């Protein structure tokens, strides 16, 4: 199986893509409310964070060489676990991920999305409203060459 970074949705940033097949693998979006992920200091922000899906769904279509991921109505609460500061974001965006032969992935997203991980080697968490493109390393943790046509908000700064 191949892991796919689900940029559109935070928690669901990591979706499991089925093994390669001749036909696309799909299913209706499923309810994601209540899903959580804890991120240690340095994984997204310089402090530990908790992400909890408060409403919405997540789904995708997986092909041999790509995936299309959607998150209709998705909202997430992000909390600085040290201070309790939190922010809720609506992130119902869509993105397309193309799996490249060298193990990297090229992603293109539109709408409201949440990205977190290492950006050119530095931890960050960004809410993006618009169009973005980036390459993801084979370890699925580092974004290389992120370009944004729209608004990008530093979520870590909102929680600091």
Number of helical segments with 4 or more residues:
1
Tally of separate domains: 1
Number of beta strands: 15
Give the proportion of residues in helices: under 10%
The main sheet comes to:
9 strands, mixed
Order of helices and strands: EEEEEEEEEEEEEEEH
The radius of gyration over CA amounts to 15 Å
Strand portion, in percent? over 45%
- Model regions low in confidence, pLDDT < 50 over at least 5 residues: 1-22
User: Cα distance, first to last residue?
Assistant: 37 Å
Structural class: mainly beta
Overall, the morphology is globular
Q: Average pLDDT, to the nearest integer?
A: 84
Topology:
Elements: E1 2-5, E2 14-17, E3 25-26, E4 30-31, E5 36-39, E6 49-55, E7 57-62, E8 66-70, E9 75-80, E10 86-90, E11 94-99, E12 105-110, E13 112-119, E14 122-136, E15 142-154, H1 155-159
Parallel strand pairs: 13-15
Antiparallel strand pairs: 1-2, 3-7, 4-7, 5-6, 6-9, 7-8, 8-11, 9-10, 11-12, 12-14, 13-14, 14-15
């Amino acid at each position: 199986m191949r892991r796919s970074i689900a940029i559109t949705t935070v928690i669901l940033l990591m979706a499991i893509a089925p093994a390669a097949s001749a036909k696309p693998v799909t299913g209706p979006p499923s309810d994601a409310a209540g899903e959580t992920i804890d991120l240690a200091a340095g994984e997204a922000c310089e402090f530990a964070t908790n992400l909890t899906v408060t409403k919405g769904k997540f789904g995708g279509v997986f092909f041999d060489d790509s995936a299309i991921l959607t998150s209709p109505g998705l909202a997430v609460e992000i909390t600085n676990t040290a201070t309790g500061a939190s922010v809720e974001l609506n992130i119902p965006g869509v993105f397309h991920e193309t799996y490249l032969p060298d193990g990297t992935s090229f992603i293109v997203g539109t709408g409201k999305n949440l990205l977190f991980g290492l950006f050119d080697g530095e931890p960050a968490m960004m809410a993006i409203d618009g169009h973005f493109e980036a390459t993801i390393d084979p370890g699925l943790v580092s974004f290389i060459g992120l370009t944004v046509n729209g608004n990008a908000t530093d979520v870590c700064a909102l929680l600091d």
